[in-house]
Amino acid sequence: MEAKVYDKNAKAVSSVSLPENLFGLHWNSDLVHQVATSLESSKRKAIAHTKDRSEVRGGGKKPWQQKGTGRARHGSTRSPIWVGGGITHGPRNEKNFERKISKKMKAKAFFTLLSRKFKDGEVLFVDSIGMTEPKTKNAIALMKGFAGIKGFETLVSKRNNSAIVALSTKNKDVERAMGNLGNFEVVETRNLHPLALLKYKYVVIENPSVSIDLLPGKNYFGGPARLASESVAGREKKAPTTPKASKSKAKKVTASKK
Question: What's the whole-model pTM score?
């Protein structure tokens, strides 16, 4: 798989060879949905909290005597059936929403999304995004130049969640220049994750020859070829081995022969 690499002037200067097992995966909506919902749930913080009858104020005295009044018996005015009492089965801030997913599932979902974006023409490879001055106008001019490339016409005009820029190394000048642009986000390539690919329409990858090796999960996830070999190896049946006769059984057999 080949892809064009552009310079700052939006001109194709070279090409990069992309691994088939990272940029050529088939779409798997079930896996992507499972990983995305798990990551979102793990990020969730339990904020809503209601007080039960042991936490609300008051209720220390028995409202009235147990017998003789003709009314129902009550031990506290802070019972859930009283006005101002505790809440039954309400949300609590100690609830844990974390959901665990395996590293292989997360890696495969990431490269599945990356393959889908590459197939749809939403991945742009740039040789360098270095800036002489960390100014917003320079970042806008740079992105407007990239918007002239076919398939990336809405790179600047899209108001929300336009593109995520993946840098091969940390660059504070680029981060400061794009800090005021709400429709862009700048991260290091090693910090990319599935939720970022779902949030932004375009992916701009700097220095692809280096960035591809820095993609998260690349070393852990070997692609379809590796998975196929593992599955075949797992199906191979081992030759049945004859169980060794114990010494006690061997002695019994020899004794019977005598």
Answer: 0.77
